[in-house]
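Hello again, I could really use a second opinion on something today. I owe you a coffee for this, so here goes:
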Amino acid sequence: MNANLPRISDVDAVEIARVVRPLTDINERECVAKLAADVSPGGLIVEIGSLYGGMTAVLGLARPDAKIISIDDYSWHPADDVPTSKELLLANMKSVGVKNVTAREGDSRAIGKTWKRKIDLLWIDGGHSYDYVHADLENFGPHAQVIAVHDYKNPAWATIEKAINDFILDHPEWAISEVVGMVAVLRK
């Protein structure tokens, strides 16, 4: 960990999880670790978009007594890296001792249409098009207590900011409570 950055969480999940390649920065991982640690024991965390499991590991280590459902279609990976898969995600979780993850392979937009369960923390970092992000917010958001979305204000993905803004316009009970790096945290 970079000693020059102040820690915003006392959860060691970020340090332990660093062996699984993340596409988030240290402050973003600290933020999500704190959000996960705040979930009640036995609560439900839903992750949309897992890639190799860098943030999945943070979630699982920060709240090992929660249930985590990770949803990904495993269709994208960085051009300079190995393809991702459900098997690779689960192997990476095993390598860091995370046992509380169920991986669901599929399109989050289709899975979300029939979602009925209460969600304590919703982490969105899947498809980055407006259609994906807005559908994930609309389908899963009403069931969530807290929503965190990655790549907010990322100039390469203006679609994400627009999807969040449109969701808040349609659901005024939600507001952005904080932004850490490119993680927007929404609360009721």
User: Anything to note?
Assistant: DSSP finds seven helices and seven strands in the chain. Residues 13-187 form a domain with the Rossmann fold fold (CATH 3.40.50.150). The helical segments are 13-17, 26-37, 54-62, 86-95, 108-113, 130-140, 158-170. The chain has one domain: 13-187.
